[in-house]
């Protein structure tokens, strides 16, 4: 038997699979990359040698109202490591600056105080020279319109970001299932943009575009809008990190929001690219906590399996989903209409300005469900999973038995992706 550890929530579960059934194990090179320096040293090196930009301390000089966009509770960005380095650099340039940390929730629920403490640490959260504000995309009164996106959608962002003397952002770079890569420009759109702006950018036309896929930036209409938004918002400096499977920093990139981000994307692309290992059964995960908190986020890990699963095959998604579905509209889409062809036709007939919340996630999940059986090994309620037109398994052995029964054969080949959000599967 081949034993493979799969991240699940804040722990791991062990998969035991007959060796002869293993078609491939797809793992990002990031998980075996061993940097010579500590996490803090890596961030310091990036900040002191920025790409395409002056140093942050130089940009901060004379600035009093500095806003840092930070990722929310759904992202494993090690802000405890990044924030002290950024603050030190800012204070060297502008000792009296007021720093506002604007939490980029995008379309997610608000981040709680407890989650802020977990992410930044009690000492940072308690500092008197820092204030934390959680972005809420549905609060129209908090937004200001600053232009029209290349796609035609209205760019409306959080007023706090717009009114900053200096706007910066922290984040991380990993493969992203429709924006190509996370990080960089995503801090602004969708990070601190209005619901209407996010929905226009995540429209069905763009989600269906063949360039809106993992690892692709060139020709990606979603990415194009995001870059334009970041430039219009005057995002001046970013600090983005690359993480291994233990969510530890292995590289950092800082500087110009696009130039530094692209350099980071090239690094991630080299590490994360893996050749597909086509199989009838593909096991994937969402990399554990915090990205596997709900079904909504877990669609990301499914897309990695989609890229290597044979038509008509089975995707087994191992994801905690301790918070349930993560999106009422996502749940309702599949619970209220059982005809997946009809669901997809409805998406494709929806114009940009009529996009509804979570439509993009629903569209991608529907695309997957039209081609594959999806079995979830999860803590989400069985009824919820089944109402969303997927199958529920209490554990991985049960899921494999269900997959074999569905396929009508006992020894179908299996490909395992221990961390589905960390790889770029190349067909």
Automatic annotation (TrEMBL):
Pfam assignment, any one: LarA_C
GO MF annotations, alphabetized: lactate racemase activity
Source species, domain of life: Bacteria
LarA-like N-terminal domain sequence ranges: 8-215
Residue ranges constituting the Lactate racemase C-terminal domain according to the UniProt record: 274-425
Annotated NCBIfam families: Ni_dep_LarA (NF033504)
Record protein name field: LarA-like N-terminal domain-containing protein
Organism: Anaerostipes butyraticus
